[in-house]
Design brief:
The protein has 520 residues and is mostly helical. It folds into 3 domains: 146 residues, no CATH class; 96 residues, no CATH class; 179 residues, no CATH class. It contains 24 helices and no strands. It is rod-shaped, with a radius of gyration of 38 Å. The C terminus is likely disordered. Keywords: Membrane, Transmembrane, Transmembrane helix.
Length: 520
C-alpha cells in the first residue's frame, strides 16, 4: 500500500461525503426556512438581551416589550416579502406548517396559541436587524424622546413661573416702598400692564417649545429679548428717584444673572435633563419619575396641559409593563455615555450608540449559540441521510480500496471539481456534482450489489433478512453521519488540498508557463 493509493481512497471518500453534505445542507436550509429557525432565534435572543438573562426572558413583560419592538415600522420594513402568485402560495404553505408546529407547543407567557412568536397576527419575522435600527426602535418603543420632551416642558414652565415671580417681587417691593407717593400711580398701572404682556410672551414661548417650533436655547433667547423690552419700558416710564433706579438695577442684574449666558442658564436651571435623568424617566422608583408624576397631579399647572395625554399613554404602555432589567441595563449604558456628552441631544445619540454596541455584542453570542444548535441539527440530519442512503463509512473504504475502476473514476471526477478556481459557491458546486454523478455509481444505497457485500444478502435469495448483521453497519453509519455534518465547504476545501498534494502541487499559471517556454 503506497501513498498515491491512500490518497486515491481518501479522495474518493471525501468526494462521497461532499455529495452527501450538499444534500444535507439543502435539507437543513429547507427545514430552517419552513420553521424559521433564524428569525425565531433572533427574536428569542432579543428577549434575552432585554431581560438580562435567559431565565427572565420568558416573562410576559419581556415578551410583550419585544413584540412592541417588532410592531415598530422600522422593524416591519426589514421583513420584505415578494409579491406574486408563484411566491405567495409556497410562502403560505410554509406559514401553515410553521403555525401548525407552534400550535403543538405550549403558549408563551402573556399570549395564546393564536399568537406566534413574532407577535399577534404575524406569520414571520426578520432574520437580521441592524444595530442602529434596534437602538432607535427600542428608544422609540420606550417613548423616551416623548418623556424627555415632556420633562423639559415641565421644567421650562417651572423656570418661567419662578422668573416671573422674581420679577413681580421686585415690582411689589417698589410698590410697597412708594405706596404714599402719588407719582407712582400711573407708573404701576403701566408696569403691571407690561408685566401681563411679558407673561403672555413667556407663555407663548413655552407653547412654541411644546409644539416643537423652537429649541430650548431659542426659547430662552426669546425670553431674554422680551425681558429687555420690559426693562426698557420700565426705565422709560419710571420716576427719577433712588428707589426707582435701585429697582431698575435689580431688574438688570436679574436679567444678567438669568439670561446673559444661555447655556449656563440651562445648566443652572436644570432645564436640560442629563442622560442619567433621561433613563430615570422610565423608572417608577426614581425622583425624576416622581417629578413627572407630581406635574401630572397638579392639574391647575400649565405643565399638566402639556404632559397629561402623552404621559398616560406612556405610563400604561411602557412604564407599567417595563421589565426592571431594561431600566437597569439602560442605566448602566447611560453612565457610560454621560462622561462624553454635554447636551441631551448628544446624550440620546450616545445612548443609542451604547445600545448598538451592546446589541452587536449580544448578537455575536447569539450567532455562536445558533451555530452550535445548527451543528446539532446537522448531526441528526447527517445520521438520517447516512442511514437512508446506507452510507457505511467502513464499507465505502473497503469498496474503494478493492475496486480500482470505481476509485479511478471518482478520483478523476473529484480532481476536476477540486481544481476549480475561486471561492466555494454551494449552488454551482451542487450543479457540477449532479453532472458528475451521472457517470459514477457511488458505493452507497440499498441495492443488491451493496447488500451482498455488506450483509451477504439479496432480495432474490430465499433467506430471511439478517437483522442482526445490520448491527455491524451502525458504526459506519455513525461515522458517516458525523462526517456529513461537517458541511460541504469543509469537504470541498479538504478535497482541494489533497488533490494538490496528489498532483505534487498546483498547476503553474498560464503566465508562468509562457515565461518558461520563452527561456527554453
Amino acid at each position: 500500500m503506497n501513498l498515491p493509493f491512500i490518497l486515491d481512497v481518501a479522495i474518493g471518500l471525501i468526494f462521497i461525503y461532499l455529495i452527501l453534505s450538499l444534500l444535507a445542507s439543502e435539507i437543513q436550509e429547507l427545514i430552517a426556512t419552513v420553521f424559521q429557525w433564524r428569525a425565531e432565534h433572533l427574536k428569542k435572543s432579543i428577549e434575552i438581551l432585554l431581560a438580562g438573562n435567559a431565565e427572565n426572558a420568558e416573562e410576559a413583560h419581556v415578551i410583550q416589550l419585544a413584540n412592541r419592538i417588532y410592531d415598530n415600522p422600522l422593524v416591519k420594513n426589514i421583513n420584505q416579502e415578494a409579491k406574486g402568485l408563484f411566491v405567495t402560495i409556497p410562502r403560505k404553505i410554509t406559514w401553515a406548517i410553521g403555525s401548525l408546529y407552534r400550535r403543538l407547543t405550549k403558549p408563551r407567557p402573556g399570549t395564546d396559541k393564536s399568537t406566534s412568536i413574532f407577535g399577534d397576527k404575524k406569520h414571520t419575522g426578520p432574520s437580521y436587524i441592524p444595530a442602529d435600527v434596534f437602538a432607535t426602535t427600542l428608544v422609540e418603543t420606550l417613548q423616551i424622546p416623548a418623556l424627555v420632551q415632556r420633562l423639559t416642558e415641565s421644567r421650562l414652565n417651572k423656570f418661567k413661573e419662578q422668573r416671573l415671580a422674581e420679577i413681580e417681587e421686585i415690582i411689589i417691593r417698589l410698590q410697597e416702598q412708594t405706596s404714599d407717593d402719588y407719582r407712582y400711580t400711573d407708573f404701576f398701572s403701566n408696569v403691571y400692564n407690561e408685566f401681563s404682556g411679558l407673561r403672555s410672551e413667556f407663555e407663548k414661548t413655552c407653547w412654541n417649545f411644546h409644539q416643537k417650533k423652537a429649541s430650548l436655547k431659542t426659547c430662552l433667547n426669546r425670553m431674554a429679548e422680551s425681558l429687555d423690552r420690559y426693562i426698557d419700558s420700565f426705565q422709560a416710564e419710571m420716576p427719577e428717584d433712588e428707589l426707582s433706579n435701585k429697582s431698575l438695577r435689580r431688574l438688570k442684574f436679574f436679567k444678567q444673572d438669568n439670561f446673559e449666558n444661555i447655556e449656563q442658564a440651562i445648566l443652572l436651571g436644570g432645564l436640560q435633563p442629563t442622560i442619567n435623568e433621561v433613563v430615570q424617566t422610565i423608572d417608577k422608583n426614581s425622583e425624576i419619575y416622581k417629578e413627572i408624576k407630581a406635574a401630572i397631579q397638579d392639574q391647575d399647572s400649565e405643565a399638566y396641559q402639556g404632559i397629561q395625554q402623552a404621559y398616560q399613554t406612556i405610563e400604561t404602555t411602557a412604564i407599567e409593563k417595563l421589565p426592571p432589567t431594561v431600566v437597569e441595563n439602560l442605566s448602566v449604558l447611560a453612565k457610560r455615555a454621560q462622561a462624553r456628552v454635554k447636551t441631551t441631544e448628544e446624550g440620546m445619540n450616545a445612548l443609542r450608540l451604547e445600545i448598538e454596541n451592546t446589541f452587536n455584542s449580544s448578537m455575536e453570542r447569539a450567532s455562536g449559540v445558533y451555530k452550535r444548535n445548527a451543528k446539532g441539527a446537522a448531526i441528526i440530519i447527517g445520521l438520517a441521510i447516512a442511514i437512508t442512503a446506507n452510507a457505511d463509512a467502513i464499507y465505502m473504504v473497503s469498496r474503494l480500496s478493492k475496486d480500482s475502476a470505481l476509485r479511478d473514476t471518482i478520483t478523476n471526477s473529484a480532481g476536476e471539481l477540486a481544481l476549480r478556481k475561486g471561492t466555494v459557491d454551494l449552488e454551482q458546486l451542487r450543479q457540477e456534482a449532479d453532472q458528475t454523478l451521472t457517470n459514477i455509481s457511488l458505493p452507497i444505497g440499498w441495492d443488491d450489489a451493496n447488500l451482498q457485500q455488506q450483509i451477504k444478502w439479496r432480495r432474490q435469495s430465499k433467506k430471511t433478512f439478517p437483522y442482526l448483521k445490520m448491527l455491524a453497519l451502525i458504526p459506519g453509519w455513525i461515522l458517516s453521519g458525523i462526517a456529513i455534518a461537517m458541511g460541504a465547504p469543509f469537504w470541498f476545501d479538504l478535497l482541494s488540498k489533497i488533490v494538490n498534494v496528489r498532483n505534487a502541487g498546483s498547476r503553474p499559471s498560464s503566465d508562468t508557463r509562457k515565461v518558461a517556454d520563452n527561456e527554453e
